[in-house]
Amino acid sequence: MKTAILAGGKGTRLAEETSVRPKPMVEIGGKPILWHIMMIYSHFGFNDFAVALGYKGDYIKRYFAEYGSLSGNLTVRIGQDTPVQRHDIEHAPWCVDLIETGEETLTGGRVKRLKPYIGNETFMLTWGDGVADVNINDLIAFHRSHGKLATITAVRPPARYGHMRFDGDQVTAFEEKPQTAEGWINGAFFVLEPEVFDYIEGDMVMFEHAPLENLAKDGQLMAYRHEGFWSAMDTLRDKHNLQKTWETGNRPWALWEK
């Protein structure tokens, strides 16, 4: 099963980072967040990707061209027919289609432009800026169990600020950034049938708007509730929080380390 990743946005709320590179290439623990996302899927045996490029797409192309040829230990012999010899290749066996989908194309349009590379098969989709400890095998099993066209992973993210409970004016409980209890939000990590492409009219469609709204109206959208870790890297604050989490060694999304 192929995994589509949207990696073409400009990431304007991360301008200090994205002025020189696309948002999915902003690093956590010395690796682009896109790498982290792909490693989540790879941990469950899914190594075939279609990445939708847009803003500074060449940066992502160069990264994977070099990652595929320069990762691991090398011996360089200057002036010989085979100047570079690779040793101890450790990276996952990824096959990555890097597809230009237009710099101004919206999320739905990017998904639709990947159709020739997805084919007529069930596929997965996620954004290039969010990580989670989602069990991909369980997610797919849930999708197959209901027979609908689309499964969305619903999450309850950490609250941005400390949460207080009161008895009158007295604070009876204080929790620093607990998981929010105010409903569920779109955590991406979709599983989709190819008929979903028919819900996307063109480039200037947000996948989160008409396509998902109409799938819901048609009774074709189901939610896989994920109670575990999830975080999106929308702002510098999010980036710094993920980096701090990585540095603690407690990395919930790094399933490949467990």
TrEMBL record:
Q: Which InterPro entries match?
A: G1P_cyt_trans (IPR046981), G1P_cyt_trans-like (IPR013446), NTP_transferase_dom (IPR005835), Nucleotide-diphossugar_trans (IPR029044)
Among SUPFAM superfamilies, the record links this protein to: Nucleotide-diphospho-sugar transferases
Residue ranges occupied by any Nucleotidyl transferase domain in the UniProt entry: 3-201
Per the record, the GO terms for biological process are: O antigen biosynthetic process
Which Gene Ontology MF annotations are present? glucose-1-phosphate cytidylyltransferase activity
Record keywords, A-Z: Nucleotidyltransferase, Transferase
Looking up Pfam families in the UniProt record yields: NTP_transferase
Taxonomy, superkingdom: Bacteria
NCBIfam families for the chain: G1P_cyt_trans (TIGR02623)
Please identify the protein, giving its name as recorded.
Answer: Glucose-1-phosphate cytidylyltransferase
Recorded source organism is Salipiger thiooxidans
